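Why do we care about 3D structure at all? Because function follows from shape, and shape follows, mostly, from sequence. That is the central idea of this module. The next example makes it concrete: a single protein chain, its amino acid sequence, and then its structure expressed as tokens.
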Amino acid sequence: MSRKKIQMNRMWKYFVDATAQIIEEEGVENVTIRKIADIAGYTSSTIYNYFEELSHLIFFASMRYLNEYIKELSFYMTTGKNTIEKYILSWECFCKHSFNNPQIYNAIFNADLGSKPEELLARYFEVYQDDLTGLSEEVKPLIFEHNITKRSKAVLQKAVEEGYLDNEESEDIVNMTILIWRGMLTTFLNNRRDCNPEDAAAETMRYVRKITMSALKKPLELS
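And the structure:
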């Protein structure tokens, strides 16, 4: 890596670290460019030499809170006895972590980033390569795919190939799953329902299991 690239990554981390500090102490909604600049010890204009907009800094800082989910996803996926179970378990893990930290997951998967999220994701893992250490080959493609629709389709594709679902049903399951999760996350974030993170995750998964299992074309083969 060139000296210029090393210096750029170092500066990049200064600003991401400052953003993460504000999120930790004050919450995502209180992050501003001025606060980031003050903590990092640089001017606001310097930040814009490295980041196009504030949402990108929030995205990168929020990604650091996904480490526990990323590592736990590997365990969840390995416990699935078949592709349908793996799909359900992947969402169970996602719901568990997203409802425990809704602002972070909303910032990463729902917020308007003003550019291609895949490019931001690639940039993050270029700088924080250690986050990928120890991940299974089954999980890595999911982590590199920011679009949760594509991620879910990738998990279900093998179920289609195995004859458990047809393509149309697979598409419907993915779309309904994401709509259910986004609806519940928004409801939870806006305090529109009196429930804790565990209850929100459990209710979401009840619907995910129901729509997935009701679409099966043949019984699951038990190992």
